[in-house]
Specification:
The protein is α/β, with parallel strands linked by helices and 543 residues long. It has five domains: 86 residues, Barwin-like endoglucanases (Beta Barrel); 74 residues, Roll (Vcp-like ATPase, Chain A, domain 2); 168 residues, Rossmann fold, CATH 3.40.50.300; 77 residues, Helicase, Ruva Protein, domain 3; 91 residues, Rossmann fold, CATH 3.40.50. The chain is 35% helix and 17% strand. It contains 19 helices and 18 strands. The strands form four sheets. A six-stranded mixed barrel has the order 1-5-2-4-3-6. Strand 10 and strand 11 form a beta hairpin. Helix 10 packs across helix 12.
């Protein structure tokens, strides 16, 4: 690899979702000049290993910070983590005559010439070196990872239309799935930062805590609605820290024989201890650690499991070599002894994403989709109120299925595989997403009847002042949240409509929901009343 001598040390930062898998590194334009490079040139990134990337200018908000923004694949290829420093310099790159790849995730071997040709078109313009891991979004599958076995010529090469792609049988690494990186998580920037500082620092730099004279945290409790990304965060942190990751769900622990549940729990902790540094992730922790005072005499097994978990949490080495992450969507049902500092040191709420978060998630899930020109992800993010990450993934999947149904009549099912030309016709349009919205609804309110009103402002006569006040109080904060933030103004949390019967209070509320494109849940007061103690209050909480 022929390189120039001008080097620059830059700190690694997270890449934007739209840059993932493109093999690009974003750097401040002034830093690009310092290494005698131009936009689009190939640079060498040197961490514990050397890799290459195409240099692009950093976004305006990231300039002047001496950063290099690269995705999880490039970080893995350079064997570095976020906030570490790498040496960057311009390098020469030859056109690739031949590249031999080995699949890390595909179950079948790609051998047909048209398949390898298609992979070549996907990777066109990608710089790489032998030993790199690359990612391609193949038709009919999710993102697939490949490792570069060899290149002709050797050194840094650039794939082009003349490059011949060959596939080799999978090696030992073939069984592992695609790694989750921080760029695969959208809309949870603040939460992810808090998890990182609680987990990454103790695992990577335990001496910092020794210098401060404090014990590093032993556990983190993630709580939030189902599908918001609790498990995804745990997997991403484990991959980025290169820590051993053990994943168990609460019900797995329970056994029918006396002492079996406690033995299983002990074996899991012993496995993590033997492979330290390790992250032990307990999903649905509420299944094995409910409140003991609410258990009857018939639940002696659950009582013993809770006591065993408390003892194991207390017995963890305080060096930060093992960190326990618990996840639940009902944190108030956990035993209070588990939620004290020293066991779960911090509780982090993973909330439902806002409009900006939904846009990030949509960018992630449509990364490998052949989208039509009319698809507006910004518009979709505005009309998917209440959707969590799993709901948005289901929405994208349903839209893709709608696109597939359109070309189904042209598919000859007697053939072993769908022709390459037919696959190229696949395109997901905005209409496919709008049709998918009729099928997919927010999981948080799936059990509630959610009405989609068809009333518009034009259907209501008069009440102009009322309409304007409601637009300012409800619609503006949803459509222009940045303006409210700049003005340091908080929108109202509630609105009371009063007036005699038949004046249009319910109609105005329906029209507002329709115009603002938000979910409309209608609840009548008497519906919440119950003769049983606590049932009325529970009804209010659920609403």
């Amino acid at each position: 690899m022929v390189t120039t001598t001008r080097q620059l040390a830059l700190r690694i930062a997270e890449a934007k979702a739209k840059d993932v898998g493109r093999g690009i590194a974003r750097i401040d334009p002034q830093d690009i000049e310092k290494i005698d490079a131009e936009v689009g040139d190939i640079i060498q990134i040197e961490g514990k290993r050397k890799t290459v990337a195409k240099v692009m200018p950093a976004y305006p908000e990231d300039r002047g910070k001496f950063l290099i923004q690269i995705d999880g694949l490039l970080r893995s290829n350079a064997q570095v983590s976020l906030d570490e420093k790498v040496n960057v310099q311009k390098t020469s790159c030859s056109p690739a005559d031949k590249v031999v790849l080995s699949s890390l995730t595909l179950t079948r071997l790609i051998s047909q010439e048209r398949d390898t040709r298609y992979i070549g078109t996907l990777l066109d313009g990608l710089p790489l070196v032998e030993g790199d891991m690359i990612r391609a979004n193949l038709f009919g599958t999710r993102s697939q990872d490949f490792t570069v076995v060899s290149t002709v010529p050797r050194g840094a090469v650039l794939i082009n239309s003349r490059t011949r792609i060959e596939m080799k049988e999978r090696g030992e690494a073939g069984a592992r799935g695609a790694k989750v990186s921080y760029e695969d998580i959208g809309g949870l920037g603040k939460e992810l930062q808090r998890v990182r500082e609680m987990i990454e620092l103790p695992l990577k730099y335990p001496q910092v805590f020794e210098r401060l004279g404090i014990d590093p945290p032993k556990g983190v409790l993630l709580h939030g609605p189902p599908g918001c990304g609790k498990t995804l965060i745990a997997r991403a942190v484990a991959n980025e820290t290169a820590a051993y990751f053990t994943h168990i769900t609460g019900p797995e622990i329970m056994g029918k024989f006396y002492g079996e549940s406690e033995a299983r729990l002990r074996s899991v902790f012993e496995e993590a201890k033997a492979n330290a540094p390790a992250i032990l992730f307990i999903d649905e922790i509420d299944a094995i650690a409910p409140k003991r005072e609410e258990m009857g005499g018939e639940k002696q097994v659950e009582r013993r499991v809770v006591a065993q978990l408390l003892a194991l949490m207390d017995g963890l080495e305080s060096r930060g070599e093992i960190i326990v992450i618990g996840a639940t969507n009902i944190p108030n049902s956990l035993d209070s002894a588990l939620r004290r500092p020293g066991r779960f040191d911090r509780e982090i709420a993973i909330s439902i994403p806002d409009q900006r978060g939904r846009l990030e998630i949509l960018h992630i899930h449509t990364r490998g989709m052949p989208l039509a020109q009319d698809v507006g992800l910004e518009k979709l993010s505005q009309i998917t109120h209440g959707f969590v990450g799993a709901d948005l993934e289901a929405l994208c999947r349903e839209a893709a299925m709608n696109a597939l149904r359109k070309i189904m009549p042209s598919i000859d099912f007697q053939l072993d595989e769908i022709p390459y030309e037919t696959l190229l016709k696949l395109e997901v349009t905005m209409n496919d997403f709008m049709e998918a919205l009729k099928e997919v609804e927010p999981s948080a309110i799936r059990e509630v009847f959610v009405e989609v009103p068809n009333v518009r402002w034009e259907d209501i006569g008069g009440l102009d002042q009322v309409k304007q006040k409601l637009v300012e109080a409800v619609e503006w904060p949803l459509k222009y949240p940045d303006l409210f933030q700049q003005a340091n103004t908080k929108p109202p949390k509630g609105i009371l409509l009063s007036g005699p019967p038949g004046t249009g209070k319910t109609l105005v509320a329906k029209a507002l929901a329709n115009e603002s494109e938000v979910n409309f849940i209608s609840v009548k007061g008497p519906e919440l009343m119950s003769k049983y103690i606590g049932e009325s209050e529970r009804g209010v909480r659920e609403v």
